[in-house]
Specification:
alpha+beta, 8 helices, elongated
Amino acid sequence: MGEWKLRRSLPRLATRAGLGEVHRVHHERRPVPVLLIAKLGLDWAMVLLLAKALSELDMDPGTRPAAVLLWLALSWGGLAYWLLARDGRRWIAVCDGGLLVGTAGTDTIAIAWPTTEGLTPAHGPGIRRGSLRLSWLDGGKQRYVTLRMMTDRDALAEAVEGRRPVPKPPHGRILAGSGIVAVACAVVWALTLSPLADIIMARRPYYLRDLASVCAQATAESDAAYAKSAPYHGSAPHPAVLFAEEDDSDPVVTATGTGSDTPDPDDVQLVACSRLERRTYDMTCAFSHGVSVSYYKARYRVDVYEARTGRKVTARTLDADNHLFCGGVIELHGKGGGHEEDVSVPSRDDYQRILDEVAAGAGE
Protein backbone atom coordinates (compact mmCIF):
# COMPACT_ATOMS: atom_id res chain seq x y z
CA MET A 1 0.00 0.00 0.00
CA GLY A 2 1.10 3.59 -0.45
CA GLU A 3 2.96 5.41 2.30
CA TRP A 4 0.05 7.71 3.14
CA LYS A 5 -2.45 4.85 3.32
CA LEU A 6 0.05 2.73 5.25
CA ARG A 7 0.65 5.41 7.87
CA ARG A 8 -3.10 5.76 8.45
CA SER A 9 -3.79 2.03 8.68
CA LEU A 10 -0.78 0.84 10.70
CA PRO A 11 -2.08 1.77 14.19
CA ARG A 12 -5.27 -0.20 13.52
CA LEU A 13 -3.35 -3.22 12.12
CA ALA A 14 -0.91 -3.26 15.04
CA THR A 15 -3.70 -3.00 17.62
CA ARG A 16 -5.64 -5.80 15.94
CA ALA A 17 -2.50 -8.00 16.05
CA GLY A 18 -1.95 -7.18 19.73
CA LEU A 19 1.46 -5.60 19.11
CA GLY A 20 0.75 -2.21 20.66
CA GLU A 21 2.11 1.10 19.40
CA VAL A 22 4.05 1.44 16.12
CA HIS A 23 7.43 3.13 16.57
CA ARG A 24 9.18 2.78 13.24
CA VAL A 25 8.50 1.60 9.67
CA HIS A 26 11.16 0.12 7.36
CA HIS A 27 10.61 -0.21 3.59
CA GLU A 28 12.13 -2.64 1.10
CA ARG A 29 13.77 0.06 -1.03
CA ARG A 30 16.79 2.28 -0.92
CA PRO A 31 16.83 5.08 1.68
CA VAL A 32 15.23 8.36 0.62
CA PRO A 33 18.52 10.33 0.82
CA VAL A 34 20.10 7.89 -1.65
CA LEU A 35 17.11 8.22 -3.98
CA LEU A 36 17.24 12.02 -3.80
CA ILE A 37 20.96 12.14 -4.58
CA ALA A 38 20.46 9.76 -7.51
CA LYS A 39 17.53 11.89 -8.69
CA LEU A 40 19.65 15.07 -8.65
CA GLY A 41 22.32 13.31 -10.71
CA LEU A 42 19.67 12.13 -13.16
CA ASP A 43 18.31 15.68 -13.43
CA TRP A 44 21.75 17.05 -14.27
CA ALA A 45 22.25 14.49 -17.04
CA MET A 46 18.70 14.91 -18.31
CA VAL A 47 19.01 18.68 -18.64
CA LEU A 48 22.12 18.28 -20.79
CA LEU A 49 20.31 15.66 -22.87
CA LEU A 50 17.31 17.98 -23.30
CA ALA A 51 19.57 20.82 -24.41
CA LYS A 52 21.20 18.60 -27.02
CA ALA A 53 17.88 17.13 -28.20
CA LEU A 54 16.20 20.54 -28.57
CA SER A 55 19.22 21.82 -30.47
CA GLU A 56 19.22 18.81 -32.81
CA LEU A 57 15.50 19.38 -33.46
CA ASP A 58 16.20 23.03 -34.37
CA MET A 59 14.01 24.22 -31.49
CA ASP A 60 14.39 27.78 -30.27
CA PRO A 61 16.73 27.81 -27.23
CA GLY A 62 14.02 29.83 -25.50
CA THR A 63 12.04 26.59 -25.18
CA ARG A 64 14.64 25.12 -22.84
CA PRO A 65 13.28 26.61 -19.58
CA ALA A 66 9.79 25.25 -20.29
CA ALA A 67 11.14 21.82 -21.24
CA VAL A 68 13.36 21.63 -18.14
CA LEU A 69 10.59 22.79 -15.79
CA LEU A 70 8.21 20.27 -17.35
CA TRP A 71 10.75 17.48 -16.82
CA LEU A 72 11.34 18.53 -13.21
CA ALA A 73 7.62 18.76 -12.45
CA LEU A 74 6.81 15.36 -13.95
CA SER A 75 9.86 13.52 -12.62
CA TRP A 76 9.73 14.88 -9.07
CA GLY A 77 5.97 14.38 -9.04
CA GLY A 78 6.50 10.79 -10.17
CA LEU A 79 9.10 10.21 -7.45
CA ALA A 80 6.78 11.67 -4.81
CA TYR A 81 3.98 9.42 -6.02
CA TRP A 82 6.25 6.38 -6.00
CA LEU A 83 7.35 7.12 -2.43
CA LEU A 84 4.08 8.29 -0.92
CA ALA A 85 1.11 6.95 -2.86
CA ARG A 86 2.12 3.91 -4.92
CA ASP A 87 1.88 0.40 -3.56
CA GLY A 88 5.42 -0.50 -2.64
CA ARG A 89 7.30 -3.65 -1.81
CA ARG A 90 7.51 -5.28 1.59
CA TRP A 91 7.45 -3.16 4.73
CA ILE A 92 8.19 -3.95 8.38
CA ALA A 93 6.65 -2.00 11.27
CA VAL A 94 8.48 -2.18 14.60
CA CYS A 95 5.98 -2.18 17.46
CA ASP A 96 6.06 -2.49 21.23
CA GLY A 97 5.17 -6.18 21.10
CA GLY A 98 6.95 -7.29 17.94
CA LEU A 99 7.07 -6.88 14.17
CA LEU A 100 4.32 -6.40 11.63
CA VAL A 101 5.34 -7.50 8.12
CA GLY A 102 3.29 -6.70 5.04
CA THR A 103 3.38 -6.44 1.29
CA ALA A 104 1.10 -4.87 -1.29
CA GLY A 105 -1.98 -6.97 -1.91
CA THR A 106 -1.29 -9.56 0.83
CA ASP A 107 -2.24 -9.98 4.46
CA THR A 108 0.10 -8.79 7.16
CA ILE A 109 2.16 -11.12 9.32
CA ALA A 110 2.37 -10.46 13.06
CA ILE A 111 5.58 -11.63 14.72
CA ALA A 112 5.76 -11.34 18.51
CA TRP A 113 9.18 -10.58 19.98
CA PRO A 114 9.54 -13.94 21.79
CA THR A 115 9.14 -15.83 18.48
CA THR A 116 11.79 -13.89 16.51
CA GLU A 117 15.01 -15.74 15.79
CA GLY A 118 17.14 -13.14 14.07
CA LEU A 119 18.00 -11.05 11.04
CA THR A 120 20.93 -12.59 9.16
CA PRO A 121 22.59 -12.23 5.74
CA ALA A 122 20.77 -14.22 3.05
CA HIS A 123 22.64 -16.45 0.61
CA GLY A 124 21.62 -18.74 -2.18
CA PRO A 125 20.81 -18.95 -5.90
CA GLY A 126 18.97 -15.90 -7.20
CA ILE A 127 19.43 -13.93 -3.98
CA ARG A 128 20.91 -10.47 -4.41
CA ARG A 129 24.12 -9.71 -2.57
CA GLY A 130 23.44 -7.79 0.64
CA SER A 131 19.97 -9.31 1.15
CA LEU A 132 18.76 -10.13 4.68
CA ARG A 133 16.68 -12.98 6.05
CA LEU A 134 14.23 -12.39 8.88
CA SER A 135 13.32 -15.67 10.59
CA TRP A 136 10.84 -16.55 13.33
CA LEU A 137 8.92 -19.49 14.78
CA ASP A 138 5.30 -20.07 13.92
CA GLY A 139 3.72 -22.92 15.87
CA GLY A 140 7.12 -24.52 16.32
CA LYS A 141 7.97 -24.32 12.64
CA GLN A 142 10.60 -21.95 11.32
CA ARG A 143 9.46 -19.36 8.81
CA TYR A 144 11.38 -16.59 7.14
CA VAL A 145 11.19 -13.75 4.61
CA THR A 146 14.06 -12.55 2.42
CA LEU A 147 14.59 -8.81 2.25
CA ARG A 148 16.53 -7.45 -0.73
CA MET A 149 17.18 -4.09 0.88
CA MET A 150 15.67 -2.12 3.74
CA THR A 151 15.66 1.45 4.88
CA ASP A 152 17.49 1.98 8.20
CA ARG A 153 18.58 -1.67 8.16
CA ASP A 154 20.99 -1.18 11.08
CA ALA A 155 18.15 0.05 13.28
CA LEU A 156 15.99 -2.90 12.18
CA ALA A 157 18.80 -5.36 12.96
CA GLU A 158 19.28 -3.78 16.39
CA ALA A 159 15.54 -4.01 17.10
CA VAL A 160 15.37 -7.69 16.11
CA GLU A 161 18.49 -8.55 18.13
CA GLY A 162 17.29 -6.69 21.23
CA ARG A 163 13.65 -7.65 20.70
CA ARG A 164 12.53 -4.13 21.38
CA PRO A 165 11.89 -0.96 19.36
CA VAL A 166 14.87 1.26 18.63
CA PRO A 167 14.07 4.92 19.31
CA LYS A 168 13.92 7.24 16.33
CA PRO A 169 16.70 9.82 15.96
CA PRO A 170 15.90 12.99 17.92
CA HIS A 171 14.15 15.73 16.01
CA GLY A 172 13.46 13.41 13.08
CA ARG A 173 10.91 15.73 11.54
CA ILE A 174 13.36 18.63 11.75
CA LEU A 175 16.05 16.53 10.05
CA ALA A 176 13.61 15.43 7.34
CA GLY A 177 12.50 19.02 6.82
CA SER A 178 16.12 20.15 6.62
CA GLY A 179 16.79 17.46 4.01
CA ILE A 180 13.85 18.59 1.89
CA VAL A 181 15.02 22.21 2.16
CA ALA A 182 18.55 21.16 1.16
CA VAL A 183 17.26 19.34 -1.91
CA ALA A 184 15.08 22.30 -2.85
CA CYS A 185 18.08 24.62 -2.47
CA ALA A 186 20.18 22.31 -4.65
CA VAL A 187 17.52 22.39 -7.39
CA VAL A 188 17.19 26.17 -7.18
CA TRP A 189 20.98 26.57 -7.27
CA ALA A 190 21.20 24.32 -10.34
CA LEU A 191 18.50 26.34 -12.11
CA THR A 192 19.78 29.81 -11.24
CA LEU A 193 23.45 29.91 -10.20
CA SER A 194 25.23 26.79 -11.44
CA PRO A 195 27.07 26.51 -14.78
CA LEU A 196 24.04 24.55 -15.95
CA ALA A 197 21.72 27.51 -15.30
CA ASP A 198 23.08 29.57 -18.19
CA ILE A 199 22.30 26.68 -20.55
CA ILE A 200 18.81 26.14 -19.12
CA MET A 201 17.85 29.79 -19.30
CA ALA A 202 19.52 30.25 -22.71
CA ARG A 203 21.91 32.87 -21.35
CA ARG A 204 24.80 31.30 -23.23
CA PRO A 205 24.96 29.01 -26.26
CA TYR A 206 25.61 25.33 -25.65
CA TYR A 207 26.25 24.52 -29.32
CA LEU A 208 27.31 26.76 -32.19
CA ARG A 209 23.97 26.10 -33.90
CA ASP A 210 22.21 27.69 -30.91
CA LEU A 211 23.48 31.04 -32.16
CA ALA A 212 21.19 30.72 -35.20
CA SER A 213 18.44 32.08 -32.94
CA VAL A 214 20.22 35.45 -33.03
CA CYS A 215 19.51 35.62 -36.76
CA ALA A 216 15.95 34.36 -36.40
CA GLN A 217 15.05 36.78 -33.63
CA ALA A 218 16.81 39.67 -35.33
CA THR A 219 14.60 39.11 -38.36
CA ALA A 220 11.56 39.21 -36.10
CA GLU A 221 12.85 42.47 -34.56
CA SER A 222 12.86 41.02 -31.06
CA ASP A 223 15.59 40.78 -28.46
CA ALA A 224 18.24 38.38 -29.66
CA ALA A 225 21.07 37.90 -27.22
CA TYR A 226 23.00 35.47 -25.04
CA ALA A 227 23.80 37.50 -21.95
CA LYS A 228 26.72 35.27 -20.94
CA SER A 229 28.37 35.21 -24.37
CA ALA A 230 31.84 36.71 -24.80
CA PRO A 231 31.59 40.53 -25.03
CA TYR A 232 32.52 42.31 -28.24
CA HIS A 233 35.01 45.02 -27.35
CA GLY A 234 38.64 45.86 -27.67
CA SER A 235 40.87 44.85 -30.49
CA ALA A 236 40.62 41.76 -32.69
CA PRO A 237 40.32 38.82 -32.88
CA HIS A 238 36.54 38.52 -32.65
CA PRO A 239 35.47 34.85 -33.03
CA ALA A 240 32.41 34.68 -35.28
CA VAL A 241 29.96 32.31 -36.96
CA LEU A 242 27.87 32.82 -40.08
CA PHE A 243 24.39 31.48 -40.83
CA ALA A 244 22.64 31.68 -44.19
CA GLU A 245 18.88 31.54 -44.67
CA GLU A 246 19.28 29.17 -47.63
CA ASP A 247 20.94 26.58 -45.35
CA ASP A 248 19.81 24.78 -42.20
CA SER A 249 20.58 25.97 -38.67
CA ASP A 250 24.20 24.80 -38.71
CA PRO A 251 26.76 27.55 -39.31
CA VAL A 252 27.95 27.77 -42.91
CA VAL A 253 31.41 28.96 -41.91
CA THR A 254 33.22 29.98 -38.72
CA ALA A 255 36.22 32.16 -37.99
CA THR A 256 38.40 32.68 -34.94
CA GLY A 257 40.33 35.65 -36.31
CA THR A 258 43.58 33.80 -35.64
CA GLY A 259 43.42 31.13 -38.32
CA SER A 260 42.86 28.38 -35.76
CA ASP A 261 40.09 25.81 -35.60
CA THR A 262 36.38 26.34 -35.00
CA PRO A 263 35.69 28.60 -32.00
CA ASP A 264 34.11 27.35 -28.81
CA PRO A 265 30.46 28.50 -28.42
CA ASP A 266 31.39 30.44 -25.25
CA ASP A 267 34.07 32.38 -27.17
CA VAL A 268 31.89 33.58 -30.06
CA GLN A 269 31.45 37.35 -30.04
CA LEU A 270 29.79 37.98 -33.39
CA VAL A 271 27.02 36.29 -35.35
CA ALA A 272 26.74 37.01 -39.09
CA CYS A 273 23.38 36.46 -40.80
CA SER A 274 23.13 36.21 -44.60
CA ARG A 275 19.80 37.01 -46.25
CA LEU A 276 18.71 37.47 -49.85
CA GLU A 277 18.40 41.19 -50.50
CA ARG A 278 17.36 41.14 -54.15
CA ARG A 279 17.54 39.00 -57.24
CA THR A 280 17.99 39.96 -60.90
CA TYR A 281 16.80 37.89 -63.84
CA ASP A 282 19.71 36.41 -65.78
CA MET A 283 18.49 33.85 -68.34
CA THR A 284 16.09 30.99 -69.00
CA CYS A 285 17.39 27.70 -70.27
CA ALA A 286 15.18 25.23 -72.11
CA PHE A 287 15.94 21.54 -71.86
CA SER A 288 14.50 18.42 -73.39
CA HIS A 289 11.07 17.07 -72.46
CA GLY A 290 9.66 20.57 -72.04
CA VAL A 291 11.81 21.43 -69.03
CA SER A 292 12.90 25.05 -68.46
CA VAL A 293 14.80 26.81 -65.71
CA SER A 294 15.00 30.56 -65.04
CA TYR A 295 18.27 31.64 -63.49
CA TYR A 296 18.75 34.71 -61.29
CA LYS A 297 21.74 36.64 -60.12
CA ALA A 298 21.43 37.71 -56.50
CA ARG A 299 22.72 40.14 -53.90
CA TYR A 300 22.92 39.01 -50.30
CA ARG A 301 23.12 41.19 -47.21
CA VAL A 302 25.29 39.94 -44.38
CA ASP A 303 24.33 41.61 -41.08
CA VAL A 304 26.68 41.12 -38.14
CA TYR A 305 25.34 41.15 -34.57
CA GLU A 306 26.97 41.01 -31.17
CA ALA A 307 26.03 37.66 -29.61
CA ARG A 308 25.95 39.15 -26.09
CA THR A 309 23.54 42.02 -26.75
CA GLY A 310 21.98 41.42 -30.16
CA ARG A 311 23.27 44.84 -31.23
CA LYS A 312 23.97 45.21 -34.92
CA VAL A 313 27.68 45.86 -35.43
CA THR A 314 28.15 46.10 -39.19
CA ALA A 315 26.78 44.91 -42.52
CA ARG A 316 28.28 43.71 -45.80
CA THR A 317 26.89 42.87 -49.22
CA LEU A 318 27.82 39.93 -51.37
CA ASP A 319 26.93 39.35 -55.05
CA ALA A 320 26.35 35.84 -56.31
CA ASP A 321 26.35 34.74 -59.96
CA ASN A 322 27.19 31.10 -60.41
CA HIS A 323 25.34 30.49 -63.71
CA LEU A 324 27.58 30.61 -66.77
CA PHE A 325 25.63 29.03 -69.62
CA CYS A 326 22.79 26.68 -70.44
CA GLY A 327 23.86 23.04 -70.51
CA GLY A 328 23.85 19.75 -68.74
CA VAL A 329 20.93 17.60 -67.70
CA ILE A 330 18.11 18.90 -65.54
CA GLU A 331 15.91 16.54 -63.52
CA LEU A 332 12.62 17.93 -62.22
CA HIS A 333 10.10 16.17 -60.01
CA GLY A 334 6.87 15.24 -61.75
CA LYS A 335 6.01 14.02 -65.21
CA GLY A 336 6.10 15.71 -68.59
CA GLY A 337 8.14 18.92 -68.32
CA GLY A 338 7.94 21.78 -65.86
CA HIS A 339 9.55 25.06 -64.87
CA GLU A 340 11.82 25.96 -62.00
CA GLU A 341 13.68 29.01 -60.73
CA ASP A 342 17.28 28.89 -59.58
CA VAL A 343 18.73 31.77 -57.55
CA SER A 344 22.50 32.05 -57.24
CA VAL A 345 23.95 31.65 -53.75
CA PRO A 346 27.36 32.69 -52.46
CA SER A 347 30.03 30.03 -52.24
CA ARG A 348 31.53 28.93 -48.94
CA ASP A 349 34.76 30.64 -49.96
CA ASP A 350 32.89 33.94 -50.39
CA TYR A 351 31.30 33.58 -46.99
CA GLN A 352 34.60 32.57 -45.41
CA ARG A 353 36.35 35.63 -46.85
CA ILE A 354 33.78 38.01 -45.38
CA LEU A 355 33.72 36.29 -41.98
CA ASP A 356 37.52 36.23 -41.76
CA GLU A 357 37.49 40.00 -42.32
CA VAL A 358 34.88 40.47 -39.61
CA ALA A 359 36.74 38.26 -37.11
CA ALA A 360 40.04 39.99 -37.85
CA GLY A 361 38.46 43.37 -37.12
CA ALA A 362 38.67 44.76 -40.67
CA GLY A 363 37.04 48.16 -40.80
CA GLU A 364 37.23 48.79 -37.04
